[in-house]
Amino acid sequence: MGQNLIEATHLGKNVDYPQNYKPEVLVAVPRKLNREIYKIDENNLPFVGYDAWHAYEISFLTKKGLPVVGLIKLVYSSSSQFLVESKSLKLYLNSFNMEKFGNSQKEGIELVISIIKNDLEKLLKTEVNISFYSHNSKEDKSDFDNYEILEESQSVENIEFSFFSEDKSLIKTENKVGEIKIGSHLLRSNCKITNQPDWGSLFIHLEGDKIPTKESLLKYIISIRNENHFHEEICELIYIRLWEICSPKNLTVSCLYTRRGGIDICPTRSNNIDNLPPSQIDHKSLTHKLLRQ
Fold first, then answer.
1. What is the mean pLDDT of each run of 10 residues along the chain (293 residues)?
2. Looking at 16, 140, 145, 198, which residue is catalytic?
3. Which of 84, 89, 115, 223 is 20 to 30 A (C-alpha) from 230?
4. Is 191 an annotated catalytic residue?
5. Are the beta carbons of 63 and 102 closer than 8 angstroms?
6. Which is the catalytic residue, given 16, 41, 51, 191?
């Protein structure tokens, strides 16, 4: 089956929600074909990273019929051969809604998480780490508090933006050694199948001899506005453009997308595993939600 056909299994179609547990609705999408477009070698990836997903529509019944509701955070490696298609995950998680698990809420949560972990690892052929949250975490953290938000600069009103399709030539560099930690809440791209807009926040940590100018970075981020890719693919696209143009010593790109369909997807890529945002990629840690999440 071609990639577009795989991705369109559920996306863009009216699909009835399963009334019973149904792992067969899950769809694995190969990462390879999209990476080939940008000359990313599957056998020699220029990054390490993880995809962190927050799913807000998880619920099931105990054996006595008591509903249990919560949030699950699941994390798996960007080195995996596949990613899970988001609508299929939504359908799959909702297939638990009327099923009964465990004599207590605690027992039910343990059973459900074990089932989800097993199903996703079988689908994606990689380790998947999952935690269930039934109440707000008291240890909410943020990995990006000290990042400068580009559009909050006073000079932004004087910049003219006229490119709304991805164009790497917009990225201009300064030949000086330095380090930047910048972010923007203006990230927008589109679903490659339905063309629905996906909104998000982007954070870049770059260190090296060629530092991109802040104005050019903002122009480039805004040029993503009409790109049609999945969230993970947008993150890798931005990473590979900066890697090619800046040849940095260290580079980390994180995309925190707005929740849609009860799920938000937050991929992050880095050339250095030690620079990955620790709370973002830790399934046992919930991070502060941004305004648009």
1. 51 70 96 91 95 96 97 97 94 97 98 98 98 79 92 92 94 94 96 89 97 96 94 96 97 96 96 97 90 73
2. 198
3. 115
4. yes
5. yes
6. 191
